[in-house]
Amino acid sequence: MSTTCPKCNFVRPADTTAPEWQCPSCGVAYAKARAAMLDPEAVEIPRRVVAEPDGLPWGRIMMGLLLLVTVLIAYKALSPKPGAVVSSATARVSAGGGGGEGQLARLASSVQTGDVVVYSAVWCGTCTEAKAWMKSNGFKYTECDVERNADCANRFRELGGNAIPLVIVRGEAMRAGFDSNEFVDAVKRSAS
């Protein structure tokens, strides 16, 4: 009597070398295939289990590091940049009395060439914004490029400069970067 596989319907030949319990075509055990056809939930299908190797769970460590790097990159990209230009000085001057922009213009007219020195570099975006703010508000300044001029680079180092723009108002160094409120306060202090 020939046996037919319940899974692939292969008729078992008499001269096969496969065990009696196994289909020579698909390799399934006849009993399991029959049981699966009668009650699919009763048959336990072996699942392949991938065990973590002994020692540290490297996959989890790598995922944690990747998450940490992603968070740091996002934080760096979204956090305010040191030296960002804050252009609220006009509103602050007007709150102090007088006609805001008019008072800022009078303050700017008190600054002579050479009173303000900006140590900068061509590639520095904050430097460009700071100079644009000063120019748009009528402040005169002298630019000193620390990459193209060796004398400027030497003076920058002597002043303890470690970041650009470094703005000097009548000999007083502002903190690294540029803040229009700090700049206006420095000009007011030096004018007194």
Write a structural description.
This protein is α+β, with helices and mostly antiparallel strands and 192 residues long. The chain folds into two domains: 1-50, no CATH class; 89-191, Glutaredoxin, CATH 3.40.30. It contains seven helices and four strands; from the N terminus they run H-H-H-H-E-H-E-H-E-E-H. A four-stranded mixed sheet has the order 2-1-3-4, sandwiched between helices. The longest helix is centred in the middle third of the chain and has 21 residues, at 58-78. It is rod-shaped, with a radius of gyration of 39 Å. The N and C termini lie far apart (116 Å).
Features:
single chain, 192 residues, alpha+beta, Glutaredoxin, 2 domains, 7 helices, 4 strands, 41% helix, 8% strand
CATH fold category name of the largest domain? Glutaredoxin
As laid out across the biggest beta sheet, the strand order is: 2-1-3-4
Number of helices: 7
Q: Tell me the strand percentage band.
A: 5-15%
Q: What's the rounded overall pLDDT mean?
A: 81
Cα-based radius of gyration, to the nearest Å = 39 Å
Helix content: 40-55%
* Main structural class: alpha+beta
Q: Could you state the CATH homologous superfamily of the largest domain? A: Glutaredoxin
Summarize the structure.
The protein has 192 residues and is an alpha+beta fold. It is built from seven helices and four strands.
Topology record:
Blueprint: H1 30-38, H2 58-78, H3 89-95, H4 101-109, E1 116-120, H5 125-136, E2 142-145, H6 150-158, E3 166-169, E4 172-173, H7 180-191
Parallel strand pairs: 1-2
Antiparallel strand pairs: 1-3, 3-4
